[in-house]
Amino acid sequence: MKAKTIALTISLVFVSVAMGFQGNPNMGAWKLNETKSAFAGKARNHTVVYEAVGDQIKVTVDGVDENGAAVHNEWTGKFDGKDYPVTGDASGDARSYRLVNKNTLALTNKKGGKPTLTGRIVVSADGKTRTVTTTTTNAQGKKVTSKAVYDKQ
């Protein structure tokens, strides 16, 4: 009887976590809409996928760098504003996401503990588009802002 109760409790926890992610409008696959986007350079994140991994979220990004070479990075963590490791991102070794409200995330990339990029991710009320506005500093020390618009797949 005790084993059944423990198993049932564990199952309910996993179902609760999964149900919590269902209400998050960021979850799923997103494809870049270049005609609606405005970039400072040639680098592009063509696809971004948010998926549940246990009680965390995995974000997978595929695109191209300034020279047109393929880039791929991954981050797994929570939307709690804490830094979690990111792999494959030349501009950062840690990333944090913070839930601002149901449809908005704040984003910070860091390298060696110092911010390299900040941004805001806003999912439209209908859940069909996602706008990512980021600010970084270029090699000349000038602040550069980019806006990428993604369509839900």
Gross CATH architecture: Beta Barrel
Helix amount, in percent?
Answer: 10-25%
Structural class: mainly beta
In the sheet with the most strands, the strands line up as 1-2-3-4-5-6-7-8-9-10
Order of helices and strands: HEEEEEEEEEE
Which regions are unreliable across 5 or more consecutive residues at pLDDT < 50? Answer: 6-21
Count of the separate structural domains = 1
Number of helices: 1
Instruction: Indicate the CATH topology.
Output: Lipocalin
CATH-defined superfamily: Calycin beta-barrel core domain
**DSSP strand (E) fraction?**
over 45%
The end-to-end span amounts to: 45 Å
What would the average pLDDT be, to the nearest integer? 88
What is Rg? Answer: 17 Å
Number of strands: 10
Major sheet description: 10 strands, antiparallel, barrel
Instruction: Identify the overall geometry.
Output: globular
